[in-house]
Amino acid sequence: MSRPATLGQLRESGWESRTVKDEVRANAATKIAAGEPLFPGVVGYDDTVLPQLENALLAGHDVIFLGERGQAKTRMIRSLTNLLDEYMPIIAGSEINDDPFNPVSKHARDAIREHGDDTPIEWLHRDLRFGEKLATPDTSIADLIGEVDPIKVAEGRYLSDELTLHYGLVPRTNRGIFAMNELPDLAERIQVGLLNVLEERDIQVRGYKIRLPLDVMLVASANPEDYTNRGRIITPLKDRFGAQIRTHYPLDVATELAVVDQEARIVEPAGHRVVMPAFMAEIIGTLSQLARQSPHINQRSGVSVRLTIANHETLVANATRRALRLGEKDIVPRVSDLDALAASTSGKVEIETIEEGRDESVVERLLKSAVLTVFKERCRIDQLAELLTTFDGGTIVHAGDDIASAEYVGIVSKVPALRAAVADLAGSESPAAVASAVEFVLEGLHLSKRLNKESAGGKATYRGRG
Question: Does residue 26 sit in helix, strand or coil?
Fold first, then answer.
């Protein structure tokens, strides 16, 4: 459908001007009434964060998100643009998205004075109505609000001329959503510059007797620990935010894995198939959950869901490498692949100071705890009594990343007591799935102190404790 191209045509079309918060409120209300998700792709917040955020939007509030890294703060902030109208009219050539019916810049006022109803109109897509700045200590008022443009002065304009202004990010996001990430990192004297934006809804540039009434929805993010570690949000600025919403990490393994299913990028080599056993996926999710409770991990830094995603991808990558070397078509991660997670885990958690130099041992203990936790949930020791008797009778099983899946099938044939437990876990007769289940049962029995294990360089030998 053709859109009005001039101010006169816009009036005739019946288009009505409304503030950005009214726009967001109306579109949010429409989606809520229709049962549509406001933030598709955000998992685990349905009963906690999203109701608070929906309240803030319906109330027309500016919002600050408090939460550790990797808690979808930026994703939610950027998704807010979906609640704007798809297109919005502005005065053509306006640097600050002037409302055709309520122009605030000198450029727009002069254009309307000169052309009247023939003033040209442009239509701005909602994706272009979003501004974002990562707060850093060197961020200046000029970056956010504006400054005199020496080039425009050199062209012959007077310093007193409003057209010599170079607008900052905030006015350039007029009639849109402006996000300030890591707000406490912004110098306190610069935070003062945002006070008028939040309350009086205007900006003033030094030395100019001008007032630009802005229409901006301001959203910010912060790590709660930043209040004491690197900086703080000044009290008057905090007071001007209408809503302060606390985010959190996934509260259970199922939610953790739902995020992984959505975000992890797995590429299957040609002619191969990747299958992630449920118990192996649960080990990955449980590892992150345990890390968030561990006294050996710096909880102020947080344990991001990115850890779970990276570990999932690394586990599949190691299983892929092993399958390619062994010439197997099915790629199914095993317990012996978990050693590869040391690299993807160490860089995403901060070990407490007293544990410095012991990163590998801390990660190893967490991995063992995760395997044991999932094993206890998946298997009952009393149902494995016959298997333990077999090992006490002298049975020895070799496992490791150098052993082909077919050899594990042979192990199950030689040790019938393994068959029932493996069948429940594997879910199929695929040799690769059987191999994964066998290693899981054996490792679980070892960690439960029912079997002895000798390991070296990715190879392991399991035997009875007798």
Answer: helix
Locate the DSSP E strands across 227-327. Answer: 243-246, 273-274
Q: What are the phi and psi torsion angles at 21 (to 5°)?
A: -70, -35
Measured over the CA atoms of residue 119, residue 120, residue 124 and residue 129, the dihedral's sign is negative
In sequence order, the 6+-apart residues with CB closer than 8 A to the CB of 23 are: 83, 84, 85
Which residues are paired to 123 by β-bridges?
Answer: 89
The answer to whether the CB of 71 falls within 8 A of the CB of 43 is no
User: What is the distance of C-alpha 329 from the center of its chain?
Assistant: 33
Contact assessment for residue 341 and residue 314, using Cβ atoms and an 8 Å cutoff: yes
- Decide: pTM greater than 0.90: no
The b-or-e profile of 277-293 (16+ CB within 10 A means b, else e) is: bebbbbbbbbbbbbbbe
- Tokens 């229709």 sit on residue: 34
Residues 97, 108 contacting (CB under 8 angstroms): no
Model confidence over 73-112: pLDDT tens digits?
A: 999 999 999 999 999 999 999 999 999 999 988 899 999 9
Furthest-apart CA pair in the chain: how many Å?
99
Q: Report d(CA 353, CA 356) in Å as an integer.
A: 5
Q: What is the pLDDT of residue 228?
A: 43
Taking the C-alpha atoms of residue 225 and residue 69, their distance in angstroms, rounded to an integer, is 11
Distance CA 153, CA 161 (A): 9
Q: What does the domain layout of the chain look like in residue ranges? A: 7-246, 253-464
DSSP-derived letter for residue 243 is E
Q: Are the CB atoms for 194 and 141 separated by under 8 Å? A: no
For 391, the token pair is: 């090992």
Residues 52, 245: contact at Cβ < 8 Å?
yes
* CA-to-CA separations, 310 to 50, 300, 305, 315, 316, in angstroms, rounded: 26, 21, 9, 9, 10
CATH second-level architecture of 7-246?
A: 3-Layer(aba) Sandwich (3.40)
Say yes or no to pLDDT of 391 above 80.
yes
User: For the chain, how many residues are written?
Assistant: 466
Q: Where are the alpha helices (DSSP H) in 99-217?
A: 106-115, 141-144, 150-154, 169-172, 188-191, 195-198
320-333 pLDDT, tens digit per residue, is 999 999 999 999 99
Let me know if 258 is exposed, middle or buried by CB neighbors in 10 A (0-12, 13-18, 19+).
middle
Sign of CA dihedral 205, 208, 209, 213: negative
φ/ψ bin of 223: left (φ > 0), alpha (ψ from -120 to 50), beta (otherwise): beta
The residues near 237 (Cβ < 8 Å, ≥ 6 apart) are: 191, 192, 194, 195, 198
d(CA 95, CA 173): 9
